[in-house]
Amino acid sequence: MTDNLALWQARLQRNESAYSHRLAAMDERERIYKGSRKIDKRVIGDYTDEAAHVRNLTAEIIEAQVNSSIPQPKVTAMRQEDEHKAKLIEDMLRNELNRLPMEQLNDQQERTVPIQGGGMFLVEWDNTQRSHTTVGELVVSLLHPKQVIPQDGVYTGVEDMDYIILKMPQTKEYIKRRYGVDVKSETEQEPDVKSEANQSPADDMVTQYIAYYRNSKGGIGLYSWVCDTELEDIDDYQARRVKRCKQCGEAKPLDGNVCPKCGAKEWTSEVQEYETLTQPVVQSDGNVIMPYYVMADGSMIPTMIPYYKPDIYPIVLQKNVSIFGEFLGDSDVDKIKDQQNTANRIETKIVEKLVKSGSYLVLPDEAVIRADAEDMKVIRPGSAASAQLISVKDMEGNITQDLTYLAQVYEEARQIIGITDSFQGRKDTTATSGVAKEFSAAQAAGRLESKRVMKDAAYAQLFEAMFKFKLAYADEPRPVTSRDLQGNTTYEEFNRYDFLEQDVTGEWYWNDQFLFSCDTSTPLANNREAMWQETRENLQTGAFGDPTDVRTLILFWTKMELLHYPGAADTKAFLEQRLQEQMQQEMMMQQQMLQQAQQQAQADVMAQAVGNRNL
User: Fold this and answer.
1) 317 and 120 in contact (C-beta within 8 Å)?
2) Which of 266, 207, 214 is closest to 235 using CA atoms?
3) DSSP 3-state assignment of 190?
């Protein structure tokens, strides 16, 4: 066992022990959300029982808050000359959101965050994803809070920590393929990070531990291991590296594991601080960076530019609601835990009352009932007086008070979180008009505004990390598509060299001075039905121009096409063809009028000439 392995195993054990009570609470929250039947009967004793019926208030309230819209990027330039670059970054980020499975990630995050109080995004650059013209792609995945062990005592944020440790369930084949290390003899140490507690280890799985830390220069280091096997130890993880042959120093080819120069198969990793240009670099503004400088004596010095390093943790934390002194935010499950427990108890009590209620037959002691499979039952009362004592008693349990208090508990849970009938789209008897209903929904939205702000803040940090990773590792220009003001598709390129600048002293540096936030108009833009209706109203009110003019209709259907209205493109094409026909007819009419005017002018000249001869 190496010293580094022992150091990181000790750090994991120490910080996990300090974080253990929070980890235990995570499993309990998941069980409650899934409809746990466990009842905590603190009123009559410190013991537990199971509910016969569960009204899952927790799941209902959390599902009511799910927002499927994905925040869209908004990039602000710090300098006026960088406005076009900011627009390009926005378009690039939108393209990445479309390429990545953000719908699935957001759907899972929308439940994990309110249940656990927070969730994490993991941003990585996967150099194995290659095409014919590019090497590497951005990869964004999710981390459950159970997979993250923060540094003990540092709960203000990820960037304030000296290190943070992840638990990643991986297959043994993946470890061998990725790191070249055979771990078939190892067992899965922590299967619980995949789902609930008390999971049995899988034969083909192991738990990989990844520690990100701040190195002595302020960069990001990485240490990874499985059980007692070290996988990676990289002090400057985000620095550029090149693998060279141990024998001759030749760079390793992209494909293959044999040195093309000497045939060796052993490689060493070498950090590269600067990139030496081998050919001219053309920036989008037409500026050309030459691969060498010509000195006064005629000598040529190669152009060397520094490699860009993000120097940020690749972990983005999304909180539910911020709370002082906690790494994660406040959990909705914790807030309504008592209400859920009470609801389980009352539902169980109601079921017991209903099951025990029913009809009972009253008989005197001497009466006899024949018990067989016949439909007609025979009762022998013994005497006429005893026959008068035979009767049926209906025993019904009174559950009125139980239902009343159950409704009160349900309202308590909703009011704690801030959910109203109008917010859920249910019938709201307190709202007597449409305006009152809108106001009620707006009040609920105001109470939940903090959660949306936290989501936007996390996505803004995610957008910044995606840009910095793209700026650091996307060597080849990447295509970027967007829409212009006319709704036409435009094609550009994200070239990281466009962000390379030179100061007055001739030193090269990377321009990453951009502000990242979320477009606040995204929720309305994602509501297509509302946008369609608003666009129609703008047409009817004349906001686009004369509603009967073909050009106005083309503008209207262009907007509808941008909003993905069915058949908008065909209607727009038809109107454009009609406009061309009208323009051709107008040109023909103008030509005819011009010819008639010319003919009339010639006739007038000839008539005047004839008149002059007659004189």
Assistant:
1) yes
2) 214
3) coil
Measured distance CA(273)–CA(240) in Å, rounded: 7
Give the H or E element holding residue 80.
none
d(CA 546, CA 561): 20
Supply φ then ψ for residue 240, to 5 degrees.
-70, 140
- The number of angstroms, rounded, from the C-alpha of 151 to the middle of its chain's C-alpha atoms is 25
From CA 276, how far away is CA 303, in angstroms rounded? 6
Mean pLDDT of 121-147: 92
Instruction: Quick: pLDDT tens for 544-582.
Output: 888 888 888 888 888 888 777 888 888 888 888 888 888
> What count of other Cβ atoms lies within 10 Å of the Cβ of residue 63?
14
Token readout for 340 is: 């859920």
Distances 472 to 86, 251, 432 between C-alpha atoms, Å: 17, 20, 57
Residues 6+ apart with CB under 8 A from 471: 308, 310, 496, 499, 510, 512
pTM strictly above 0.85: no
The answer to whether residue 19 scores a pLDDT higher than 50 is: yes
Task: Identify which of 99, 94, 98 has the alpha carbon closest to the alpha carbon of residue 518.
Answer: 94
Q: Looking at 46-55, 218-227, 349-358, which range is the least confident one?
A: 46-55
- Contact in structure between 310 and 472 (CB atoms under 8 Å): yes
Q: In which region does residue 545 sit, left (phi positive, over 0), alpha (psi from -120 to 50) or beta (all else)?
A: left
Tell me what pLDDT residue 52 has: 82
Beta-carbon-side half-sphere exposure of residue 42 (alpha carbons within 13 Å)? 4
The side-by-side arrangement of strands in the sheet containing 220-226 is 148-150, 163-171, 205-214, 220-226, 229-234
pLDDT tens track for 30-68 = 999 998 888 876 555 444 578 888 889 999 999 988 988
For residues 171 and 434, give the distance between their C-alpha atoms in angstroms, rounded to a whole number: 56
pLDDT of residue 41: 65
The whole-angstrom separation of Cα 197 and Cα 190 is 9
Instruction: Please state the φ and ψ torsions of residue 247, each to the nearest 5 degrees.
Output: -90, -50
**DSSP readout, 541-590?**
TTTTS-TTSHHHHHHHHHHHHHTT-TTHHHHHHHHHHHHHHHHHHHHHHH
Q: How many residues does the chain have?
A: 615
Higher pLDDT, 67 or 196: 67
Model confidence over 430-461: pLDDT tens digits?
555 554 545 455 555 566 888 999 999 999 99
DSSP-assigned beta bridge partners for residue 140: 123
Q: Which two tokens stand for residue 499?
A: 């962000």
Closest among 420, 375, 401, 470 to 137, alpha carbons compared: 470
Q: Is-contact 381 366, C-beta < 8 A?
A: yes
- Mean pLDDT score of the chain, rounded to an integer? 85
Q: What is the longest distance spanned by two Cα atoms in the chain? A: 153
